[in-house]
Amino acid sequence: MPLQASCSCSAGGCSNPAGASPALLQHGTVDSVIQDEQFLAKMDTCAATTENCFSNKCCKTTGYSCFQTGAFTAKCAMACPAGSACNVLQPWYKSLPAWTAGDSMFCYTLYQVQRGRTPELSDNPKELAILKHQKSAGLGIFACDAWKVFSDKMVDFGGIKTHPVLINPDFTNYLRKDKPDRYLNTPLYMDVWKQIKTEGNYALYSWTVKAEVATVFLPTQLKKRLGVYPETMYGTYIETCNKVLMGYFGNLEVVSKTGMQRFLEQFEAYYYNNGKCMESAGGGARRSVRRSGSMVLGAKTCSCNFAWMTQQLRKRRTSL
Q1: How far is 279 from 22, CA to CA, in rounded Å?
Q2: What are 24-57's pLDDT values in tens digits?
Q3: Could you tell me if 46 and 76 lie in one domain?
Q4: Taking the model in full, what pTM does it have?
Q5: H/E segment holding residue 266
Q6: Could you say which of 94, 118, 133 is where a domain stops?
Q7: Sign (positive/negative) of CA torsion 95, 286, 13, 2?
Q8: With contact defined as beta carbons under 8 Å apart, do 296 and 217 qualify?
Q9: Which run of H or E residues covers position 186?
């Protein structure tokens, strides 16, 4: 059934009730038993690029596959190694039951006004202008089936106000490692996720998308891909960057309804557990990789040289 054009809006958000019904499973039901949760990232059991991946059949580095190179040997690589039969070994979690979950999207963004210590970073008029233009033209997250705009200060962006997040008193004490004059945005996102979890509106849609204000995001293009992406009982997320150990970060983050549910159930505990979250959710979250630099999903890609946010403060480690 096509999504209807009409929607209902309130402070900081909009939804499309007509298109909000949960996607139906296309391949029956899943009756597998979910294993006990453990604070152990799936990638910890996978092989590094210098190790033999024959036994575990998976690779730590995003974008890499495990290619069999001998009777009992295999190598992690982005492409088939020279001289091999190009046989890709599949880890156990890729054999889990899967189905297509639909293409409806709940999208959200965080407009951060107070970005850092300097006077220039105490306001953010450029992104506010972008946000107003997107809203007036129905672009970016405003072309999704439902959307929500959060901010560290309540701001009007075209007849609708942003939804404020709770700012901890020590927010200004946490600074980015790569840009020490800017505040770490993790405390803001922690409250964003708490509010999304409490409200529960995301669960009416097949996918949850976080897009930063300045992201060139084309929801109609993304829908074409999501309609055929697999969902599992553990959830699905799309890795943003290749050749890193944790590829789920950046200015566009896409996760299925089940994956978002599991993340919201456990993100606070995982963020205080060495920053391991999505990979820890039952050990079977399906990773779908978007190549760095691709515009297929409608977003500028982040710099994939290193995931600086995984090296931050021990208590509030990961920034999105």
Answers
A1: 25
A2: 333 323 222 223 333 334 567 889 999 999 999 9
A3: yes
A4: 0.71
A5: helix 257-271
A6: 94
A7: negative
A8: no
A9: helix 186-199
